[in-house]
Description:
single chain, disordered N terminus
Amino acid sequence: MNAPAMSDNDGRYDQMGSNAGRDWWLRFESLLEQKTGLSLAHPRSLIADLVGQRMTAWNLSDRDAYLSLLYDIDKGRWEWSVLLSALPVHESYFFRDPDQFSVIREQLLPELWRGKRGQEGELSIWSAGCASGEEAYTLAMILEDWSVATTTDPWPIRILGTDMDPNGIQQAREGRYRSWSFRSVAPEVLATFFHAEGDQWYRIDSRLRNRVRFEELNLLEAEHHLGQEPRFDLVLCRNVFIYLSPQAVRHILTAMHALLRPGGYLVTGHAELDLQLVARHGYRTRNFPHSRVYQKPLPGEEPVGSSPLSRGGFKPGSPWSVQAPNPRPSTDHSPGMSSGRPGLAVSGDDGAGPDMVCARMRRHIVAGRHAAAQAEGEAARPIHPNDAPIQTMLAWALANLGRSALAEESCLEAIRMDPTASEPHHLLGQILSETQRFAEAEGSFRMAIYLDPGDILAMIELGNTLARLGRRQEARREWMVARNLLAREPDDRQVGVFEHWSVASLKIELERLLREGG
């Protein structure tokens, strides 16, 4: 049976926004945040479909009855388990973000090992929000390789992986993965640490599986459940905070600080946390060439947070919504992802690969064929369901067609697929600005610039947004920074993915803004 639509006509949630529907949705979001800390960035239509499916499974036709079920102590426990398993809050694969793992191997592990020499006790690591275990096992592989290469004495190691999703935890305990989870893994690593089981499945070697313990855990309850265990030297909580409410973020930062040993490290996803926020919670910020990590100070040390960006005042935790004046495909070059160069096909590409799809969509948009670009993107989504550049191009086409709500949803989907890509944040900022939501647009443009400090168009648009908010001095500062950056570029260089602006024309525009708007 198909899940029924959530409409007021049959007593279900009205995703079009009736008063009753909005009231139900607010109560559902409040309960979700209370139980899990999650503050969903997904389009409501996706969550409404999921809730509709769960109501069908329980043979419920009344939305309030489903809400009562979630409150029920006994039945609710099971339903929360199923619901959280179905929420698309993250994906995981081995060696995701290799730069961060390089920092762990080359910088953090040697420092932690030096600190433990001559002491008893194990190296204790926690992968918080571990999904189906790929991150925790990646740590086990790195530690196995590192300890063999650099130490002569055995180093006792404890690795804990936790997640709210019971299905993910079960898969992690089994240690069986499909080939898609290895898209960033070198063949020699696969051969060393895994055993093939058929054509598509691999199981991690038992010696590593036995080193990692997996537990189902709600991070809001972490301090209560883990407080009796030895404290951790290293905590990874990557691409988790972006889904949490501000209250949940503060609660979890406090808990993790208490669970870390002095000198221990917290590693998060890129640009997830406000530097001032982590400093207020007692962490020192440590900057490395490709990553930023947070350290619990040793006794007698004071927390030191990095200063905001020199352009002034950006707080990474401010409202996130973002977009790009001309969305550039992601520069993530990991296998299985778009190369970020829309006109360049990968070897063997038959025209259906993500690079070629982006190239065709870009040509349609440049030529003004926005409906054709939309059709191309929608046809590609089932084939490339997690390709952020295609989703961003689709958002751009929808925005040009005047379908702002759908374009906004597509931007949020692209951000979910790749939270570190600046382009969907930039594009979202433009959409929010066009719909007069300037305070939200400011946050989006700031995030785009944070993720791509060379995004000159986002700087100019941020200045325009600040001017509309009446903050002229801040607007002028953004325009001046953009002007200084442009001064280094040749006048004939094109800026923006669709090459709408030359450096020379941008210089003229900035001089006008500084003269008339500053």
